[in-house]
From TrEMBL, chain A:
Organism placement in taxonomy: Bacteria, Pseudomonadati, Pseudomonadota, Gammaproteobacteria, Chromatiales
GO biological process: transmembrane transport
Native species: Candidatus Thiodiazotropha lotti
Protein name (Swiss-Prot/TrEMBL): Sugar ABC transporter permease
TM helices/strands, residue ranges: 12-40, 76-97, 109-131, 160-184, 216-235, 267-287
Source organism, top-level taxon: Bacteria
C-alpha cells in the first residue's frame, strides 16, 4: 500500500529539514542556476549594451584567454604539489602526536592553531615573512642555512617563487586541519590489530604499511578530496600576497573569476568561470567516489 | 616447542593497580595449561606479559629456557588467538593466514604450502578469498586459529578464544582445540573465566584470584583436593558449599551450619588426625552439591528455590537450625530426578561425612 505523500511523519520530516533546505536553495542552488543562465549571456554591469544570448561564446573566450588557462594550470600545479605534500606532512604529524608523551595536547593545539586563524591574517603574516631584501625573515633564514650563498629575493614578485610562496603558506595553514582528521582516523584503528601484527612478527615499519595505512584508507581519501577541492578554490592568499602576479605567475581560477566579475564587472564571464570550476570539482568528487566504491564492493 | 616459566613475576600498572603478584608457574613442553579465574584476577595480564604486549614489572619470564623480559613480541616466537580474533579486516582470509609467514620472509612456495595445510586442517579452503566481515563467528574463530598455527610457533597463547561463540559451537570447537593441540604438541597457555572450559581442556589448571596464584594441578586433583575455599567454590557448577563447623569436645559431635547437622567426629579424626588441632575452634567445612541426598534421617532445611535441569535439579536451601542473628547463607544441593520440591517447603538432606572438606577459618585446606 502506498503511503499518502503528506502523512504526519513525512510532514514532520519536511518541516524539520525546511530551514536547511530553504537556505541551500536560496543561497546555493538558485544563485548557481542564475550563474549558469548568466554564463550564456553578455551581462556586464554598467554596460549600455542590451542583454544578449551568446550561447557558448563566453566559454570559448575564456578558454582562449591565456590568463585563464594559466590560472587553470596554476591550480593544477598547486593541487599536484600541495595535496600530496600536505597530506604526507599531516600524516607524519598525526603519527607523531598519536604517541603518548608529555605535552601531546599542547603540540596538537599548536599545530591546529593556523587553521583557526583567518586566512587573510595568515597571508598578511606570510607577506611579512617573505619580505624582500636581506632583512626579510625568509631571506635571512635561507641565508643562514645556505651559509651565506643565498641571494635575497623578492619572493612575491618573482615569477618563479610567487606560486611556491603561496603553496608554502597554504601548507602551513592547512596541515593542521588534515592532521586532526587523520589523528581521529588513527585513533579509530583497534589497538588489537597492532598487537596481533606485533605477535605475527611485524616490526614498526611493517605495522605502518600493513595495518595503519590500510586502516586509514577511507580517512585519507576524504582528506585528499577535501584538500583538492579547497585547493581549487584558492583565492585569499593570492588576493592578499601577489594579486595573481607577476605576469599571471600566481593567478588562480577563483582569482580570475573575482577579477572578472567584480573588478571588471564582466558578470557573465565570471559566471562562466564559476561553472567551469564547479564542473572540475564535480569531476574530482565523482572520481573519488568511484575509487571509494570499488573498495566498498570488495569488502 | 618449548617450556614456559614465570618466576616471581609482578605486574603493576602505571596507575598503581597490582594485576599480578609474585606469580610463579612452570608450564611443561607440549602441555596445555589453562589459566582460570574470575574477571580481573590477572589471567589475561599473565598472558599478555608472556606475549610481550605488556612489560614485566619484577621477576623473570622464560620461554624455552631463554629470558624474554626484554624481548619484543615479534622475537618471542609465539602465536596468539585473541578474544575478538583481531583478524586484519582489510585482508582476505588467505592474506590473513599468510601474514605471519610473510613477516618471517618464507619462500612463496613454502607460504602457499603451509596456508593450504592449515586451511585444509581447519576446513577453511572455501573461505580463503573472503574477508573477515563476510564470515560467521565460528569461521572467524577458525581463521584466528589458523593464523596462529601456520607459524608453527614455540608457544600458543589463547585469550578466551571461545567466549564470543554460542554454547553449541563452543563445545564443538573445544573438542577441536584439544585435537589440534594434541596433534601439534605445541605448548599452549589458554586463558578463560569459564571453569567448564578449564576442566575439559587443561592438562593442568592454574587458578588465579586477585593477582595471586591459588593452586596448580590436573583438573580432577583440583576438584577433589582444593587448596582453599576459593578454589573449592570456583570449581564445580555450582561450586562447593561452605559451612561453618565446630568440633564439640563435650558431645563428640561435629556441628555444621550452626548445628543443623551433628555428626560424630571420631571416624573423621581417625582419617584426618590434624583436625584435632581445631577442637572447639573456628573452622570451615565444604561439601559438593552432588554429595547431598534426601533421607528421613537428615537435617531439615528450607527450600529457597529450585532449578530443574530435566535429569536433575538444583535445590537452593537454608539450613533451618540457624542461630538467630547470624546471616543465613543459601546453600545448594544437586539432586537426581525431576524437581519434586517446592519453594518454602522443608526437606531433609543428609550426606556421607567422608565427603567433607575441611578448611581453616582463613580458607586454607587442612591437610
Amino acid at each position: 500500500m502506498r503511503q499518502p505523500l503528506l502523512d504526519s511523519r513525512n510532514f514532520t520530516a519536511a518541516f524539520m529539514s525546511a530551514p536547511a533546505l530553504v537556505g541551500l536553495l536560496l543561497f546555493v542552488a538558485v544563485p548557481f542556476l542564475f550563474a549558469v543562465a548568466l554564463s550564456f549571456t553578455n551581462l556586464r554591469l554598467g554596460s549600455p549594451l542590451p542583454l544578449e544570448w551568446m550561447g557558448f561564446e563566453q566559454y570559448r573566450r575564456i578558454f582562449s584567454d591565456p590568463s585563464f588557462v594559466r590560472a587553470l594550470l596554476n591550480n593544477l600545479v598547486f593541487v599536484v604539489v600541495v595535496v600530496p605534500l600536505q597530506t604526507v606532512l599531516a600524516l607524519v604529524l598525526a603519527l607523531l602526536l598519536n604517541r603518548r608523551f608529555y605535552g601531546t595536547t599542547w603540540f596538537r593545539t599548536l599545530f591546529f592553531m593556523p587553521v583557526v586563524f583567518p586566512l587573510s591574517l595568515v597571508a598578511v603574516v606570510w607577506v611579512l615573512i617573505f619580505a624582500p631584501g636581506p632583512n626579510g625573515m625568509m631571506n635571512a633564514f635561507l641565508d643562514l642555512v645556505s651559509l651565506g650563498s643565498w641571494t635575497p629575493r623578492d619572493f612575491l614578485h618573482d615569477p618563479y617563487f610567487a606560486l611556491p610562496a603561496i603553496m608554502l603558506t597554504s601548507i602551513w595553514q592547512g596541515t593542521g586541519f588534515q592532521m586532526v582528521i587523520l589523528l581521529a582516523g588513527l585513533q579509530a584503528v583497534p589497538a588489537e590489530l597492532y598487537e596481533a601484527a606485533a605477535i605475527d612478527g611485524a616490526g614498526r615499519r611493517q605495522q605502518f604499511w600493513h595495518i595503519t595505512l590500510p586502516q586509514l584508507r577511507n580517512t585519507l581519501i576524504f582528506v585528499v578530496l577535501v584538500t583538492t577541492i579547497l585547493a581549487f578554490r584558492l583565492f585569499d592568499q593570492v588576493q592578499i600576497m601577489t594579486q595573481g602576479g607577476p605576469y599571471d605567475a600566481s593567478t588562480t581560477v577563483m582569482f580570475e573569476t573575482v577579477e572578472a566579475a567584480f573588478a571588471r564587472q564582466q558578470v557573465a564571464r565570471g559566471a562562466a568561470m564559476t561553472v567551469i570550476l564547479f564542473l572540475v570539482v564535480l569531476l574530482i568528487t565523482w572520481l573519488q567516489r568511484r575509487v571509494a566504491r570499488q573498495e566498498r564492493e570488495v569488502t | 616447542m618449548a617450556d614456559v616459566e614465570y618466576r616471581h613475576v609482578d605486574k603493576i600498572f602505571e596507575e598503581g593497580t597490582k594485576a599480578l603478584e609474585k606469580f610463579s608457574l612452570a608450564v611443561e613442553d607440549g602441555e596445555m595449561m589453562v589459566l582460570v579465574g574470575p574477571s580481573g584476577c590477572g589471567k589475561s595480564t599473565a598472558l599478555r606479559l608472556l606475549a610481550g604486549l605488556e612489560a614485566v614489572s619484577n621477576g623473570e619470564l622464560l620461554i624455552g629456557g631463554r629470558l624474554v623480559n626484554e624481548c619484543s613480541p615479534q622475537h618471542r616466537d609465539i602465536a596468539m588467538v585473541f578474544q575478538n580474533y583481531a583478524l586484519y579486516p582489510h585482508m582476505t582470509v588467505r592474506r590473513n593466514l599468510e601474514f605471519p609467514l610473510r613477516m618471517m620472509k618464507l619462500s612463496k612456495s613454502e607460504i602457499a604450502r603451509r596456508v593450504e595445510d592449515a586451511a585444509h586442517l581447519l576446513t577453511l579452503t572455501d573461505l580463503l578469498e573472503k574477508r573477515p566481515r563476510q564470515l560467521s563467528g565460528g569461521q572467524r574463530q577458525r581463521v584466528a586459529m589458523g593464523r596462529a598455527m601456520v607459524r608453527q610457533p614455540q608457544v600458543f597463547l589463547m585469550d578466551e578464544p571461545l567466549s564470543n561463540l554460542d554454547a553449541k559451537l563452543r563445545t564443538q570447537i573445544r573438542t577441536e582445540i584439544i585435537r589440534l593441540q594434541k596433534s601439534s604438541g605445541v605448548t599452549t597457555i589458554y586463558v578463560t573465566h569459564d571453569q567448564v572450559e578449564a576442566m575439559t581442556l587443561g592438562d593442568r589448571i592454574a587458578i588465579l584470584n586477585a593477582g595471586k596464584l591459588q593452586q596448580v594441578g590436573p583438573p580432577q586433583e583440583l576438584y577433589d583436593h582444593p587448596a582453599n575455599t576459593f578454589v573449592a567454590v570456583f570449581l564445580g557448577n555450582p561450586g562447593m558449599n561452605i559451612f561453618d563447623a565446630t568440633l564439640n569436645r563435650d558431645t563428640g559431635m561435629l556441628q555444621l551450619a550452626a548445628g543443623a547437622w551433628q555428626i560424630p567426629f571420631e571416624p573423621l579424626l581417625a582419617r584426618k588426625p590434624s583436625l584435632s588441632e581445631y577442637m572447639e575452634g573456628a573452622m570451615l567445612a565444604g561439601l559438593r552439591p552432588e554429595m547431598f541426598s534426601t533421607s528421613t534421617s537428615g537435617a531439615e532445611v528450607t527450600v529457597e528455590s529450585v532449578e530443574s535441569l530435566g535429569h536433575e535439579c538444583l535445590v537452593y536451601f537454608t539450613a533451618s537450625c540457624v542461630v538467630p542473628g547470624r546471616d543465613q547463607k543459601t546453600q545448594v544441593a544437586r539432586l537426581p530426578g525431576p524437581a519434586l520440591y517446592e519453594t518454602g517447603n522443608s526437606i531433609q538432606l543428609s550426606f556421607d561425612p567422608e565427603r567433607l572438606h575441611f578448611f581453616t577459618a582463613d580458607g586454607d585446606a587442612i591437610a
